[in-house]
Amino acid sequence: MTGLSTAGSVRATPEGLLWEPSPRWVRGRTGDVTVVDSRHPLLVWEPGVPVPLYAFPRGEVREDLLRPAGDPPTGRHTGSRVFYDLEVGGEPLENAAWTFPADELAGHIAFEWFRRTGRGLDHWYEEEEEIFVHPRDPHKRVDALPSSRHVRVEIDGTVVADTRRPVLLFETGLPTRYYLPPEDVRLDLFVPTGHRSGCPYKGTARYWSWRGGAGVPADVVWSYPDPLPAVAAVRGLVAFYNEAVDITVDGERLERPVTWFTGTLT
Q1: pLDDT tens for the chain, residues 1 to 266
Q2: Contact at 8 Å (CB) between 242 and 177?
Q3: Strands 246-249 and 151-155, how do they pair?
């Protein structure tokens, strides 16, 4: 194992973690307090988790704000046993930080992201841009391309969308998502919900659920009303989970894929 200075070289630990140095300047805050200010972060991928997280050298973390966890969890974060509560302004954030058992990651501390887990630091920045949910994966690409393909979507045999002007979103490791003009979608068959989700590549999505009975997961339809500039082409368009509906493209019925999201659709 070589040193920590060369970005772009993914390495593995005996515990099954993958990691590589990142050249980005990363800061994490809770409220107005900067807890992390790092120019030497590591990107870490845990086994079975499709998105990375950051771990930071102790010298670039406000360790004076950390306390040994009063009730450390078990079975979280690939064998980690050392957890910390974060105390800012007298308000403790339980199990907000931890260390990995891997020798290669000794001397580094990782943090929860509030927008991902509901606990931890609530504002994160790469350089001067705020990022959400989790770090962007340098090995992942997201492209939104306008198309003239014929896309039809059915739920329980009912055609709920039919268009020849979709935008296809290609995201590494996921099936193609078909974003459709709302005028070509039977949104009257769906009810808007209060659910929201954040994506570091696309922005914040709003959702709709199917009105037509059991067997269809909630929040099966989504849209990005104000997407990030890199995927501006999907603004206001409507997408369906391929995992839960039947999509036909240019006359060919697609198989329903099994993805990270399959187990979350209820």
Answers
A1: 333 334 558 999 999 999 999 999 999 999 899 999 999 999 999 998 888 999 999 999 999 999 999 888 888 898 888 999 999 988 789 999 999 999 999 999 999 987 777 778 999 999 998 888 899 999 999 999 999 999 999 999 999 999 999 999 999 988 999 999 999 999 999 999 999 988 999 999 999 999 987 789 999 999 999 999 999 999 999 999 999 999 999 999 999 988 877 767 76
A2: yes
A3: antiparallel
Q: Based on the structure, what is the number of domains in the chain?
A: 2
Q: What is the CATH number of the domain that holds 186?
A: 2.170.150.40
Q: Is residue 180 part of a domain?
A: yes
| Residue 134 vs residues 52, 182, 200, 238: alpha-carbon distances, Å | 7, 29, 7, 24
26/112 same-domain check: yes
Q: Which pTM value belongs to this model?
A: 0.81
221 and 111, same domain (yes or no): no
On the CB side of 242, how many CA atoms lie within 13 Å of its CA? 20
154 shares a domain with 126: no
